Amino acid sequence: MADSEAPISPPAAEALPVFTPINLVLLSLLAFLIYTRIRPKPPIVLPKAPPPTVFRVFTPPELLPYNGTNNMPVYLAVRGKIFDVTSGRNFYGPGGPYENFAGRDASRGLACGSFDEEMLTKDLEGPLDTLQDLGPEEMEALQGWEERFNDKYLIIGELVPIGSEKVNKAKGAEA
């Protein structure tokens, strides 16, 4: 009986199609990954540089417009130094907690820890505040603020009273 039966051969291997749905998905994914690696990249665009700032002499009326309104930068003065605080517009510009100091001499208000209007010099045409009536604690507080501004912001000018020789020299140099 064993002789009469033909040996059973295994069934012939079927050729599976190459284009099955899973193969098409994998091939598409591979093509996408290769494309994302070799496609041309857009050139890197650097931000526009801010305009250069020239150190200059300001009088209180000349400093006043630099309060952040009308797309102007925000400047404030501390002990005769004028700082460009435009990068801190949220604090020193319109609507900020220190907006009273924008475009003004902020020395007395910072020293006293008061942000009220009465801390500002009312007469912009008069002499600058000498701060002589401040006590040692207030002067120490002012020095801390000045150090903070020196570390964080660019000094762009000097605050001088109207009629100062520095104002006359600066105007003579501009002409």
Describe the protein in words.
The protein is an alpha+beta fold and 175 residues long. 34% of the residues lie in helices and 10% in strands. It has helices at residues 21-38, 60-63, 89-92, 107-112, 136-152, 165-174, and strands at 56-58, 75-78, 81-84, 154-159. A four-stranded mixed beta sheet has the order 1-4-3-2. A hairpin with a 2-residue loop joins strand 2 and strand 3. The mean pLDDT is 86.
Helix share of residues? 25-40%
Oligomer: single chain
Distance between the termini: 126 Å
Uncertain regions spanning at least 5 consecutive residues: none
| Alpha plus pi helix count | 6
Mean pLDDT over the residues: 86
Described by the principal axes of the CA atoms, the overall outline is rod-shaped
Alpha-carbon Rg, integer? 36 Å
- Main sheet strand line-up: 1-4-3-2
**Element order, helices and strands?**
HEHEEHHHEH
**How many distinct beta strands?**
4
Strand content range: 5-15%
Question: Major beta sheet, specifics?
Answer: 4 strands, mixed
- Estimated structural class: alpha+beta
